[in-house]
Every structure is written in C-alpha cells, then in structure tokens.
C-alpha cells in the first residue's frame, strides 16, 4: 500500500492535519452542559431501544441530533437511527443518516461500522429489497439507487475493505441493467486500483466475457474481440493456478478464431473484389498469426498459395466485382 493509499484508508478525521483538526474541534465544540444533556438523553434512548420501543428510542435520538448537533452523542444518535431505519426496511433513509455521520462527524469512533452498515443498505437494495415508506408501505425496487450508494461508499473509504466489492457490485448491477459501459468502467477501476484484491481474477474474467458478448460477427468492427482477447491473455498470465484457467483458454481460442476469420474475410475482399494482392496477403498472414491452428488460418494459407502461384479468383467473382464497382 502506498502512503497515499494508507492515508485514504483512514477515517475522515485522519484527513486533517493536527492543527486543522484542533481548529475544527474548536469551531464545532459543544459546551460541557450540552454534552452532559445529550449523554443523558442517549442513555435513555438506548434503554428504550433495548426494551424494543423503537419509535420512542428514535424520537429521543432525533431530538439529540436536532438540539445537540455538535455533541459526540449526536454522531451515535445518527448511527442508532440508521440502524432502526434498516430494521424497518427503510434502506435509503438509513443510508442517508449514516452519510451525515461521515460528512458532519469526522471524529466518530465507529467509522468502520458506519461503512459496513452503508454497505448492507446498498446490498439490500441491489438484491431487490424495497424501501418502506413510514416503515410499512413497500416502494418500487430501486436497483439503480444501489449503484449511487456503492459509489458513495467508495468515496467515503476508497481503500477500505469494502472498496473492491463495491466496484464488483456496481458492475453486476450495471450489467443486469444493460449498462455495459458502466459495468466495464467499474471492473476496470477494480483491476487498476485494487490489483491484489481476491476479486481481481473475477474482474478480468468478467471484462473478457463482457467484451466477448459485444462481438457481433466477422463483418463488424473487431475492437471488442481484441479487448476480449487481451483480458483473457492477462487472466492466463496473472492467474495461471485459477480453477477457471481451462475455460479461459477455451474462450481465448474462440475469440482468436473469430478474429482470424475476420482477417480472412477482409483478405478475400481485397483478393476477389479489389484486385489488391498486397493488402490481401497482409490480412491472410494476420489470420495465420492470430490463430495458426484455426480453420481460418488453413483457408488463409490456401489463398496465399494461390496468390503466389498467380491464380486469380474465378470469373464469376471478377464479374461480381465489376457489377459492385461499376459506378
């Protein structure tokens, strides 16, 4: 971990220099009397909570947040309110309350617990849980909201334990919603910023598969095919002991064959319809280089032999070329 990564992995209060933090404390400091009053209230609220009186407890926590916003107890009240909202299935409201802790209470001691609770909120929404109005009325599924929440978690703790998983979840939700570019972006960030993560192999594989799914036919642009090949090759080089290695090798061969076929057909175009043997030879040789054991490579070798022997395409092909390019 670099020094920058180490710094970013800390809680928000660690982002400030000592003198800046002291100034922040002084500016936001509550009086001793306010702290005492807030502590008395929060203890009362916790007792209510332990007795199962969620509504009464939340009213007390809400009062602390409003009346004593700069006290230490206010941060804890926000956290406890968030947990109550989670219990009631109010996932979005819970997440927003927890976010206030991150933004307004940088010294809150249980920072990791806040991030964990936010992750639980986002995961619940990702998995189809519906937030409930007033804790009772279910709303529509809001999977897209989970993406926004995961991105927020990533900004809150960019090098925390949950960071790689948030990116993987963003990719999964985006893929489900056919937002391919967003999925690719999340996976790309995962392998670039968290290459040592246990999720890195899955990220490489999913990227390769995503680009493979974008391949249409040999007649279309082969950019996706090349990207897919690149990620399959990276996977093999980086994770040779993976239990997916056989599948990846098979998929790599499939993509290489597809790309070789596209080179073969481009060569045929120049050979048959443009009377350009030089260009044709370039593409035929590419087909052989890309996938030397493929059917496309075998066909390309035959075409090269014909060109070297001075054999021209059949008359029908020449006639078709004249018709196609008569104008």
Structural commentary:
The protein has 327 residues and is an all-alpha fold. The protein has a domain at 250-327. The protein contains 16 helices and two strands. The chain has helices spanning 3-8, 18-28, 32-50, 54-67, 72-87, 91-104, 111-126, 143-156, 163-176, 180-193, 200-214, 223-238, 245-273, 277-290, 295-308, 315-324; strands spanning 132-133, 137-138. The chain has a two-stranded antiparallel sheet with strand order 1-2. Helix 10 (180-193) runs antiparallel to helix 11 (200-214). It is rod-shaped.
SSE topology sketch:
Blueprint: H1 3-8, H2 18-28, H3 32-50, H4 54-67, H5 72-87, H6 91-104, H7 111-126, E1 132-133, E2 137-138, H8 143-156, H9 163-176, H10 180-193, H11 200-214, H12 223-238, H13 245-273, H14 277-290, H15 295-308, H16 315-324
Antiparallel strand pairs: 1-2
Helix pairs in contact: 3-4, 3-5, 4-5, 5-6, 6-7, 7-8, 8-9, 9-10, 10-11, 11-12, 12-13, 13-14, 13-15, 14-15
Question: How many whole angstroms does the radius of gyration measure?
Answer: 30 Å
Topology pattern, helix = H, strand = E: HHHHHHHEEHHHHHHHHH
Going across the biggest sheet, name each strand in turn: 1-2
- Please state the oligomeric state of the protein chains shown: single chain
Straight-line N-to-C gap: 64 Å
> Which segments are poorly predicted (pLDDT under 50) over 5 or more consecutive residues?
1-9
Mean pLDDT: 87
Number of strand elements: 2
Structural class: mainly alpha
- How would you describe the shape? rod-shaped
Helix percent band: over 70%
Instruction: Note the total helix count.
Output: 16
């Amino acid at each position: 971990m670099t020094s920058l990564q180490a710094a970013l992995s800390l809680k928000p209060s660690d982002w400030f220099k000592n003198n800046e933090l002291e100034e922040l404390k002084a500016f936001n400091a509550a009086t001793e009397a306010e702290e005492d009053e807030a502590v008395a209230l929060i203890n009362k609220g916790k007792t209510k909570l332990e007795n199962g009186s969620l509504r009464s407890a939340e009213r007390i926590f809400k009062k602390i947040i409003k009346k004593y916003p700069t006290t230490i107890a206010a941060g804890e009240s926000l956290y406890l309110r968030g947990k109550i909202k989670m219990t009631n299935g109010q996932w979005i409201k819970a997440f927003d309350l927890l976010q206030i802790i991150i933004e307004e209470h940088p010294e809150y001691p249980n920072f990791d617990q806040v991030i964990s609770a936010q992750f639980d909120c986002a995961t619940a929404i990702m998995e189809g849980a519906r937030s409930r109005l007033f804790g009772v009325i279910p709303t529509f599924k809001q999977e897209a909201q989970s993406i926004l929440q995961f991105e927020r978690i990533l900004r809150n703790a960019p090098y925390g334990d949950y960071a790689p998983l948030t990116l993987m979840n963003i990719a999964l939700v985006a893929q489900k919603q056919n937002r391919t570019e967003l999925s690719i972006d999340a996976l790309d960030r995962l392998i670039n910023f968290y290459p040592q993560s246990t999720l890195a192999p899955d990220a490489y594989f999913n990227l390769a598969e995503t680009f493979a799914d974008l391949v249409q036919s040999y007649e279309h642009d082969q950019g996706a095919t090349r990207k897919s090949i690149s990620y399959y090759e990276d996977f093999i080089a980086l994770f040779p002991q993976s239990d997916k290695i056989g599948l990846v090798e098979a998929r790599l061969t499939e993509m290489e064959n597809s790309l070789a076929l596209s080179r073969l057909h481009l060569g045929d175009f120049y050979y048959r319809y443009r009377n350009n043997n030089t260009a044709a030879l370039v593409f035929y040789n590419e087909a052989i280089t890309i996938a030397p054991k493929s059917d496309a490579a075998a066909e390309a070798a035959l075409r090269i032999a014909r060109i070297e022997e001075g054999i021209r395409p059949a008359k029908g092909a020449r006639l078709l070329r004249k018709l196609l390019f008569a104008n």
